[in-house]
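Complex record, two chains
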Amino acid sequence: MSSYLTSVLIFTGINLIAVLGMFLLMGLTGLLSFGQVGFMAIGAYAAALGYTKFGLPFGIGLLIGIVISLLVGLVIGTVTLKLKNDYFALATYGFSEVIKNVLIYFSSFTGGSMGVFGIPASVTLPLVAVIFLVGLVITRNFKVTKLGRNSLAIRNDELAAQVMGINVFKHKLSVFLLSAVFGSVAGSLLAFATYYIEPNLFDWNRSISLIVIVFFGGINSLTGAVTAGLALTLLPEVLHFGAEWRMVIYTFIIIVTMIFRPTGLFGRWEISGRQMMDWFRNRGQRSAARGRG
Amino acid sequence: MVKCLLLQQIINGLSLGSVYALIAVGFALVFSILKFSNFSHGSVIMLSAYLGLWFSNNFNVGLLPTLLVCILGGGTLAVIIEKIGFKPIRDKEGPLIYLFVVSIAISMFLQYLMTALLGGRFFIYKPLLKTSAWRVAGLTIPVVNLAMLGASVIALAILLYVLYRTTIGIAIRAASTDLFTPNLLGINIDLVVSVTFFISGALAGISGLFLGMSLNVYPQLGGLVMKAFIATVIGGLGSLGGAVIASFMLGLLETMITAYIGGAVTPMVSFAVMILFLLFKPEGVAGLLGLSSGTTTQKL
């Protein structure tokens, strides 16, 4: 496999891990958040500074990133999850802006807007693939168990969910923290895949991309989110779009999707082993019937 | 000298506040009716700034004709955005968060489209005013900001007249309490929404022209709507009077922090203040001052 293709696949995989977190938070639970990039930044800087300042290996940096993200997420989540819709979205936007400004402000430690150099590119495609698959299994299991149903209940009617005995705030906080871990892991991987990170890597555009992918695939479909993530990360790369036109196309896609098919491309459809078996079996029967006829 | 410096900072703060106020009122007006934060307001401001630039340079006209074109252009643009982007979702009775997402997407779309078409460069208005600043007793008073303050006051006065003395104003106020009942009573809700968007867009057109004159024209000009959002929240959700007062408070606060502590912490403080208000005083400044909160139905 050419090294270009490998690196494209690595970045796609990292993006998909972040998409999984966004799917849990926004797709299933209905919490539109611009804070995911904040957790990506925390993960990236924890891993990168852990290596460049203290010589810690990637695995330890990744874990430190997760711990910091959980602690920060606990504080931010407790404060912001009491807010509704737009206000939650904008408060989380404020959070990611604050993280960016903190990284720029404490330049003696974080390198400021110059960023952090000299990170070894030790992230390989198999590692990203394995972490993505683990994340996928966690997300899928979350969706099909009681946790996922609680999320859907909260998304559809918060009051009704509360009346049914779901601890809405606690559940939201758990999902927020879980998605923060996904974001942080994606950030750590990103740092060790790019050699170099700077605060502006984690800006508003990256948040928008994640939101576009989840809405485009369909907020109810994990299959949709992953497919949309693959398509929207790979296509611009293959077609060599400039950054501006890429964002023009992304935002155009989301406007058209929201107006004409607000449930997203895939609606509620999920790919499953049993469906595929059924399809093959039916095809077998059909061809057998055709043979008889 | 120290006193002079402080006075200068207060003047700067008030001019910044007048910018925020004009944006915040247009923003709060749509919020009070459709109950969502309309971030496409920023792109109307940005496009109006380009429109005014093009018009004043091509036809070589002064401030007033340009202002008129910006008002009409901004209003029309806002109505077009409503018809294309928001009406289909309203008709399907989609969740409010969809309107919010579409408004952000539209604003990003127009911003990147302008960047892709014209490049990220700055365009400069030819001087539409005779003097750019007055110097009085060691103080600098920017004329553009003064004009903006004047335009804000006049625009708000006209807005109040329309809201309280005309039939369409009564319809708008009725719609801000409830969209469904006025419809039953025979009010054409689509028309009311369109008029609201036109007024909001016209205010955005005024802001766009003056912002373009004081800050030059570039695709990210509409980003200032974030400050208007903060001001609207602090002012009390959808309260016009609260939004105006909060805009000036925010302008003063930001100028003081930038002058005496440092520019890096300014956005953090603004967001922190907003979150504190949301958590502990969701009725905002309007609630603190005893203006009834929520809709446009209260007096300034």
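Note: Chain A touches chain B at residues 30, 32, 79-80, 82-83, 85-87, 89-91, 94, 97-98, 101, 104-105, 208, 211-212, 215, 242, 244-245, 247-248, 251-252, 254-255, 258-260, 262 (CB under 8 Å).
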